[in-house]
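Troubleshooting: if your tokenizer reports a length mismatch, compare your output against this known-good record of 444 residues.
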Amino acid sequence: MPTNVIMPQMGESVAEGTVTKWLKKLGDHVDRDEPLFEISTDKVDAEIPSPAAGRLAQILVKENETVAVNTVVAVIDGEGAAVAVPVSETSHLKSEVPAPPAPALSGESAAGPSAPPAEAPVQAPAPGVPVRSSPLVRRIARENRVDLAHVKGTGLGGRVSKKDILTYLDGRQKAPAAQVPSLSLEIPQVPQAREVPGAPTPPAPPAAPQIVFTGPTQVVPMTPMRRQIAEHMVTSKRTSAHVYTVIEVEMTKVAQLRERYKDEFERRNDLKLTYTPFIIRAAVEAIKEVPVINSSVEGTNIIYKRDVNIGIAVALEQGLIVPVVKRADEKNFLGVARAVQDLAERARTKRLSVDDVQRGTFTITNPGSFGGLFGLPIINQPQVAILGVGTIEKRPVVRDDAIAIRPMVYLSLSYDHRVVDGALAERFLGKIKTFLENWDELVL
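Known-good structure output:
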């Protein structure tokens, strides 16, 4: 019985996806849950498994073609069904889906054409030999500076799958970790910009793609993720009546608490004590007092959300992604810290699931991790507000009619004036300020 393969919705605000690679050819047998094709959206890049076992009878969407979610992209005939594939169709497909070239990760170019690797016992290819892999796998390897020649491929003919590269990265992380891409919110491997006490250098932003000029200008097509981010941001500006407000918060108690317990916290929990869980906990408590911040708009209705699901904006090399800490209102400080580290690690290695980026109700972004004083972020639809966290640094302030040096941070709130009035926005930020400046919650 034929089974339709549809373009999945990789996030509630995602309306389309791009097929970047077909992993099976027309007429090939495919097992249920075996990787069938790769897609790219503004939320995640992912390998999509087959919904059924059988033979790939039709491919309806070509590589690099973008279609709406729920569009039928292929048809699979049921288990055991014979599929007659016209010769012209199969030859056409073969011309469209060549064997992927060797990734240029080690700086060495291929010596020349070589025969496809024979289906031999699974082993890691020798350096310099073309490695069979998908664009997604090569992208993960490139971002983590991995030579695929050293990765053991378990796929057909020694092909390196997404599972293989992630297994390799997991093993490597057990050794002393190298520097990893920076995140918009703090993670254990990335220090807070101008962290208090002390002032370490802010982490470098994700590296921009290298541009090689061949003339006065260089035209480079936007990636699918970049296109969809652009569309999402423009849609948000058209949809929400953006208004902004900024508040200054003294972080003395939080900074002292963090300095006092950071070593013990790491020893007990195998987690570094960063500022991110403090900010999230304060935002959750403020949402409880001002629940309209945790809502969305549908027509002329305001939809209040019971669960408080906090999205944390993460900066990747090719764009942004917002994994979600689910039910943050039910987690204590340690639970929030663990959830942030887990999402951060899986965002770096592209192991986020569809559920990890869905159902967010409020978002926090941190331009301060790169040294920004504060930012005015665009609301993440369909939410009605987003909190921007600036850099934490020591500044002169007036205390008891005297000038004192205190660790300070600017917090900005972008909110949708269709739903949130200025008084409510100020009340929300005021609650965060009070919670942080008078912190009394245990962290151990």
